Description:
The protein is of the alpha+beta class and 297 residues long. It has a domain at 11-105: Arc Repressor Mutant, subunit A, CATH 1.10.10. Helix content is 47%, strand content 13%. The protein is built from 15 helices and 11 strands. The chain has helices at 11-22, 30-37, 40-43, 49-67, 82-85, 93-105, 108-113, 117-127, 142-149, 161-173, 193-198, 200-204, 212-222, 230-238, 251-262; strands at 28-29, 71-74, 77-80, 135-136, 177-180, 187-190, 209-211, 266-269, 277-280, 285-288, 290-293. The protein has a 3-stranded antiparallel sheet with strand order 1-3-2. Strands 4-6-5 form a 3-stranded antiparallel sheet, covered by helices on one side. Strands 7-11-8 form a 3-stranded antiparallel sheet.
Amino acid sequence: MSIITTIPAVPSRLFSIYAALSDSADGELRDQLEAWSTPPSLATRGSGDEDEAESSLFISALQEARRLGIVDERDGRLRIVESAREGKKRKDREADFRADLCKVLFDPVRAGQAEHGAFMLALSWFLSKNPLEPLNFSEAPQEMLRKELGENRDKTELTNQSRYQNFLYWARYLGFATFVGFDTVRRVFPDPTRAIAGVLPKIFGEAPLLEIESFLSALSEIFPVFEGGTARGVLDGMRTEPFDNSDRLSIATSLALQRLADRREIGLEAVADARGRILDFGVGTKRISRIRRGGAE
Length: 297
């Protein structure tokens, strides 16, 4: 089970549990938290199939919160684990929540222990897709995965429409996807702009300028789903056809870096005698060798 396969484990449900327990040093009774999670319209109806369904939603979401290591239970009381409290000022609970999730989901060892390793494989595959040819939110990608990954396709856990859509919700929530449209015409674009922007301070540290290789190395250490990352490497090794592992970055990564440059959050520079990487925009390319924090000088 994982946040892909446990369909009720959508971001809003897990965050509601996290937020409800954030300020409670002694935790909350399980029954009380479950009652809070039940809409009043259901709570006033008495027992029945709908109440049982709502309870099941809570139980499934709680199960994943515990598997992810952000919630534990002692003596019938649910609490945020101590490691998730450390260093938190609680000014932005949702930012804390995302950070705690990323500590598990993007750590190969912890993700494997929590049975969430497939998420990085699925995200690596997703980020390798061309955002100029968006995916259909309502159309499961099994045939596409079969052609690209062969017998390894099920290792992504994207085995049906419900799992695929649950994965997409999480990809968007964590800053790796953009949705456009609604219902049957909704399209999904691999877009890691927000994810990269959120870790720029960690990537640069005190350095105002990084060589492109240093930048990508730091990025893939934080998120192994990018080029050079361990999860991306595992995914590429599963492909039915050899993958072009040249100096050209994926279109999704390239467009994300260019968007950040357009916003002057970073500056993209080319130096003739330095090693460079090629940004691929689908309709053109651009060579860069250094990235500056805060825009070009």
